[in-house]
Amino acid sequence: MATMSVSAPRSALLIRRSRFTRKWLSRATIWALLLVGALVMLSPLIWMISSSLKLEQRVFMFPPQLIPNPVRFQNYVEALTYKPFPVYLRNTVFLVVMNELAIILAASFCAYGFARIRFPGRDFWFSTVLFTMMVPTVVMMVPLFVMFRRLNWIDTFLPLTVPYFFGGGGFNIFLLRQFFRTIPEELADAARIDGCSEFAIYARIILPLAKPALITVAIFTFLATWNDFVGPLLYINSPQRFTLAIGLANFRVSFGGGMGGTTQGRSRWDLLMAFATAMTAPVLTVFFLAQRYFVQGVVMTGLKG
Amino acid sequence: MKALVRWLKKPAGRRTIIGYIFIAPFILGFIIWFLIPALTSLWMAFQDWNMIKPPQFVALNNFKDLFRDKLFWQSLKVTTTYTAISVPLTMVLAFLLALLMNTKVRGITVFRTIYYMPSIVPAVANAVLWAWILNSEFGLLNAFLHFLGLPKIMWLQEPEWALPALILMSLWSLGGPMVIYLAGLQGIPNEFYEAAEIDGAGGWAKLWHVTIPLMSPVIFFNFIMGVIGTFQVFTAGYLITNGGPQNATLFYVLYLYRNAFQYLRMGYAAALAWVLALVIMGLTALIFRGLGGRVYYEEIG
Q1: Are B120 and A219 contacting, i.e. CB atoms less than 8 angstroms apart?
Q2: What whole-number percentage of chain A has pLDDT above 90?
Q3: Which of A192, A292, B122, B272 gets the most CB atoms within 10 Å of its CB?
Q4: CA B214: distance to chain centroid?
Q5: DSSP character at residue B10
Q6: Helical (H) or strand (E) element with A226
Q7: Where are the domains of chain B?
């Protein structure tokens, strides 16, 4: 480019300018496209929050108001006290804590075996881990239910936590194993020479170094437990053991204007949207606080799989 | 026996014991929560059982009934249609968005956040929200159509619109595959594009001969995961439409759920589950055979 502009300064300048304009124009188009897309993606969330702050009769206006007038925060008080929201919240948080404990312990323990120790049969069992990730979970729905019924675990939290203490799920084992393999072997070797057992290496060297991956697993566990609907739907019957997901689903049945979009039944979309917003807010907060771990987790399972 | 004891005392043997101690939770879990249920469900598929009376062996009757069951075929059709439309649409849109974002425009991280956010909204909140968006009288979608001067659509009341409505809803969650694509695109070394440019490749040629081949493992992964995921869709059909209108959104898993937990036909439900597993595994194998050979794996480290 530099030599060209010396030999033919004018034309080169023209070419450069037109390239610059074209590049700038295409950038502006791309940016505009992304912006429109972003607005489309955001609109359901905006709609949810906007509806949650409207007066009952203002919800039923066509065309709808975008910005609620008046803004009614009382909807949240009503939505969250109509059903025992604190009870649902407590149950959900309990399950989250138990599953975090189970999965972080069990998955990292198993992942260490798969990542750092060489023994016969390891590759077979690791392919089993991958296999369990591929098998559709709903296939297990019926036999697991029968099993939990026989164990007398129906309407307790046991079916929703105990299985996670056994390995913590193929996905988490896989993710942690991938991460553990990136930690230099020399560190562990040095510890072995000093007489450290594998268990000490796992607990004192690998776990502290794997903090980012553990945080990723913790976040996915939080999301999966907080959002889980089918599990509690199958195993929980008593209202005092409902989770937020089941609470909202029940709320929907009583206040969603009838199933299938019919207009029969009482519709309180303002309250439903308040409940839905309240349930979504913690998830989005965690997402904003820990975005890079999210992206890292998605990428680790998607790209290195 | 003695040889085994001696071997276990050697480093290799000790390592094996320690290795199995580490993976023991997984092995136990696999046996208790995977193998035993899978075998139970295989046994159940050949029984007539309502969980009250003792199960009765009926040989292949459940499978015979299944092939005569109109609702089974309907649910299979609904689910297949949903997958066949939702997965390609999601993949193409997510890929295009990732391409746009990979042009190093300002604010990629903000865009990425906004596009990814919907895919972590809890399934139930998502369903309730979309039931309201798709509401034919006061919903956001019809308000938008009205704004464009188009007539209202009875999204959830008309059989021909209900499934498209749920497919539209599924597109809202394209952020997951998009983030994976974006990371993949960012991982393509610049030298590849520079080399292509020296060979005189334009924008399209670069996309076709560099980007897509290098991205094929990622595209493949998203495709398989999309198919496995959409075949198991349940919550939207259960909470938004309850399978209706006229079974237009009777997803396979919803029908399975009804058989098991509403009609208490456990044997029949187990048969349904096995058929679904075979369908999904068959499809996955087909995709692997059909596309697996075309996936380009670069040898890195």
Answers
A1: no
A2: 49
A3: B272
A4: 23
A5: S
A6: helix A211-227
A7: 2-44, 61-294
> Please, which contacts does A253-257 make with residues 24 or more away whose CB atoms are closer than 8 Å?
A256/B128, A256/B131, A257/B135
Position A7 scores a pLDDT of 46
ipTM over 0.90: no
- For residue A18, the tally of other CB atoms under 10 A from its CB is 10
Cα dihedral angle (A243, A247, A250, A254), rounded to 10 degrees?
Answer: 170
Structure tokens belonging to residue A63: 């065309």
The distance from CA A228 to its chain's CA centroid, rounded to whole angstroms, is: 10
* CA atoms in the 13 A half-sphere facing the CB of B214: 19
Residue A305: pLDDT band with limits 50, 70, 90: very low
In sequence order, the 6+-apart residues with CB closer than 8 A to the CB of B110 are: none
Interfacial B residues in 14-53 facing A (CB < 8 Å): 15-16, 18-23, 25-30, 32-34, 36-38, 40-41, 44, 51
Alpha-carbon B59 to chain mean position: 32
* Secondary structure string (H, E, C) spanning A94-123: HHHHHHHHHHHHHHHHHHHHHHHCCCCCHH
Instruction: Report d(CA A143, CA B49) in Å as an integer.
Output: 12
Report the distance separating Cα A7 and Cα A10, nearest Å: 9
B residues 151-210 closer than 8 Å to A (CB):
154-157, 172, 175-176, 179-180, 183-184, 187
d(CA B264, CA A145): 12
Greatest pairwise CA separation for chain A in angstroms: 88
Q: CB of A107 within 8 A of CB of A173? A: yes
pTM of the full structure: 0.88
End-to-end CA distance of chain B: 42
State phi, psi for B84 to the nearest 5 degrees. -65, -30
The Cβ of residue A251 has, within 10 Å, a number of other Cβ atoms equal to: 22
Does residue B268 contact residue B71 with C-beta atoms inside 8 Å? no
Residue pairs spanning A and B at CB distance below 8 A? 303
Residue A265's φ and ψ, nearest 5 degrees, are 80, 170
Contact across the interface for B114 and A62, Cβ inside 8 Å:
no
Query: How far, in Å, CA of B39 to CA of A79, rounded?
Result: 45
- Closest listed residue to residue B119, CA positions, set B144, B101, B94: B94
Per-residue pLDDT reduced to its tens digit, B211-232: 998 898 889 889 988 999 999 9
Hey, what CATH topology would domain B61-294 get?
MetI-like fold (1.10.3720)
